[in-house]
What we know:
- The chain has one domain (16-132): Orthogonal Bundle (TerB-like), CATH 1.10.3680.10.
- α5 packs antiparallel against α6 (100-112).
- It is built from 7 helices and no strands.
- The chain is globular, with a radius of gyration of 16 Å.
- The chain is mainly α and 137 residues long.
- 66% of the residues lie in helices and 0% in strands.
Amino acid sequence: MGLFDVFKGKTPELNPRIALAVGLLFMTSADGAIEQEEFGVLLANLHGDERLLDDAMAYGKATKFDDYLSASANLLNEPQKICILLNLADALLSDGHAAPQEQALFERFLNGWGVSRSTFQPHLDVIIKKNDHSVLK
């Protein structure tokens, strides 16, 4: 234990809700920063649960991505993984494009959770159609 470890808060235990929030944090910060607009979308995805966001931020600060990915892979069942992946895909496509670093991170989620592209592709197609507002012109 370090001299100043007494000032560190307790890291929350990972559960499916925190796994969703942490995943969204990692995804929205994939480009290096979370913009104010992205923060609003993130909080909306968590239904305004600021406590959940606080727990996720504490967990995310204390945990490397690969450790989170491994722990969440062991924790989550298949429907929970798909639910989180849907939220991640929707978040990364919400601004109309997927940055290369976001795409790479999403691939890491798929691989780390053992979800094939072919399994997820139909879900992604629906999200892409949902976000394609060009058809409304």
